[in-house]
Amino acid sequence: xxxxxxxxxxxxxxxxxxxxxxxxxxxxxxxxxxxxxxxxxxxxxxxxxxxxxxxxxxxxxxxxxxxxxxxxxxxxxxxxxxxxxxxxxxxxxxxxxxxxxxxxxxxxxxxxxxxxxxxxxxxxxxxxxxxxxxxxxxxxxxxxxxxxxxxxxxxxxxxxxxxxxxxxxxxxxxxxxxxxxxxxxxxxxxxxxxxxxxxxxxxxxxxxxxxxxxxxxxxxxxxxxxxxxxxxxxxxxxxxxxxxxxxxxxxxxxxxxxxxxxxxxxxxxxxxxxxxxxxxxxxxxxxxxxxxxxxxxxxxxxxxxxxxxxxxxxxxxxxxxxxxxxxxxxxxxxxxxxxxxxxxxxxxxxxxxxxxxxxxxxxxxxxxxxxxxxxxxxxxxxxxxxxxxxxxxxxxxxxxxxxxxxxxxxxxxxx
Length: 415
Hints:
Layout: E1 3-8, E2 11-16, H1 36-45, E3 52-55, E4 63-71, E5 74-81, E6 84-90, E7 101-104, E8 108-115, E9 118-128, E10 135-144, E11 155-158, E12 164-172, E13 175-182, E14 189-194, E15 205-207, E16 213-222, E17 225-233, E18 240-247, E19 258-262, E20 264-271, E21 274-280, E22 289-293, E23 304-305, E24 315-319, E25 322-329, E26 338-341, E27 355-356, E28 363-371, E29 375-383, E30 395-403
Antiparallel strand pairs: 1-2, 3-30, 4-5, 5-6, 6-7, 8-9, 9-10, 10-11, 12-13, 13-14, 14-15, 16-17, 17-18, 18-19, 20-21, 21-22, 22-23, 24-25, 25-26, 26-27, 28-29, 29-30
């Protein structure tokens, strides 16, 4: 890995030179009726511009769980180091970031959302009040109304009875929807709603599990349309289902949950009437596939396999007509993993030349992806190897910004 140091805006940044490799962050906009000549013409346009990468974490030895979110030119990143959660922001499209700020000292499994000026960060707090007492699990949330410039005092949005583990959030104007899975005996999915930017929330409402337990909810919002999808474990060993509930009034009420596919949900994208749910392991596509709806989530297609060249499970995210995905892969046998991506704006045919985002001597894992209309952003954990003096390895958080070819002024439908 070759590195050079460059001062930008008062901060020290590290940009890496990289070589294309087989792997994946893809950006796609599926369309119909495109001739072969148009495909050939677009092939060169789809090649991404050289990307830049930066180390976001500045201290600690065990950084993990990176999350990144973007709205316009505002980019927010969070991660945890042990039980400390850090947050940093960029207001120039990810070109430069402010120094990280420690948000809490008792957080685990953080989640992040941004919408306009509103930013919300949620995390699980697990504490023991006494030596012989049981561990207490609660969900806490801190909000900002100035794009992460200042974060309010955290509030508790779930009690120990509902024992939260993983959470997901989405924001539209002043509406904030939060969902989480329940690791208590009930094993349900719970959700709350705020109409004032996260200052106060409604009482939790549950979606009952179908099988043994529900987990890993994903929340997506577009205007008044809200979709919450999650994975439900069947009573039959090895079978899992993707369940979903939808709202057409900003999350005030939801439809009865319905099964939309087998497998495990990984992300949800909404654009107008189009709802796309990405999943894995449904029996037809082990790594990644999608089901789609063109009627606002009432009905879905059968799963369609994608990203067959990936050797690991991708992280996928959508933004209007753009979908982005990234995952760790191995450039050669007996090597540490790197983070890869390719891009496409026309349904994956053709893809741009594959690129290696991390390309390091360490072990790169846990990618998280966000995108706007100008660039894709990938954050990941990187475990550095021991140095020549035998100093122990450390885990750092890195982020890459990849400029994207802008879609046409009148883009074709997503699918």
